[in-house]
Automatic annotation (TrEMBL):
GO terms for cellular component: ribonuclease P complex. It comes from the Bacteria. It holds the Pfam family Ribonuclease_P. Consists of a catalytic RNA component (M1 or rnpB) and a protein subunit. It comes from Polaribacter pacificus. RNaseP catalyzes the removal of the 5'-leader sequence from pre-tRNA to produce the mature 5'-terminus. It can also cleave other RNA substrates such as 4.5S RNA. The protein component plays an auxiliary but essential role in vivo by binding to the 5'-leader sequence and broadening the substrate specificity of the ribozyme. Its EC number is 3.1.26.5. Keywords: Endonuclease, Hydrolase, Nuclease, RNA-binding, tRNA processing. It catalyses: Endonucleolytic cleavage of RNA, removing 5'-extranucleotides from tRNA precursor. Belongs to the RnpA family. PANTHER family: RIBONUCLEASE P PROTEIN COMPONENT. This is Ribonuclease P protein component. It is an enzyme of class 3 (hydrolase). NCBIfam families: rnpA.
Length: 133
């Protein structure tokens, strides 16, 4: 698998983003939070991802953009964790909810933890749904 994060893998649809925040479930690995929903999307990839950093915590656009760049980079390197485990298409938004910026190494560790907890959560939900049938 290529370690790229192309245009088709990024979440851009405003309707999907709105649906994500109204119906989505969340997983946390502080200071990262992922809101996700299982839905069909326009991409051939199993996941479309978006990244956000709140203006409330980081007033300067330079700081927000740098953190978003770090989030995208760590996701790009670790997305195989999600891609190898998912059977259905998902959409998610990863937000940085901390008050202080972290170095790349710490964000990378937290991203791996977040992606693993997402995969475990999805597996547990699919097991629970299959047991109900």
């Amino acid at each position: 698998m290529k370690q790229t994060l192309g245009k088709k893998e990024r979440l851009k649809s405003k309707t999907l983003i709105g649906q994500l925040y109204t119906q989505g479930k969340s997983v946390k690995a502080f200071p990262l939070r992922m809101v996700y929903i299982q839905t069909n999307h326009s991409s051939n990839f199993p996941v479309q991802a978006g990244f956000s950093v709140p203006k409330r915590n980081f007033k300067k656009a330079v700081d927000r953009n740098r953190l978003k760049r770090l989030l995208r980079e760590t996701y790009r390197k670790d997305k195989f964790i999600v891609y190898t485990e998912l059977a259905k298409p998902y959409v998610f938004m990863i937000s940085f909810i901390g008050k202080e910026a972290l170095p790349y190494s710490e964000i990378e560790i937290k991203m791996k933890k977040l992606l693993n907890s997402f995969v475990n959560d999805v597996k547990n939900n699919s097991l629970n749904e299959s047991n109900k049938d």
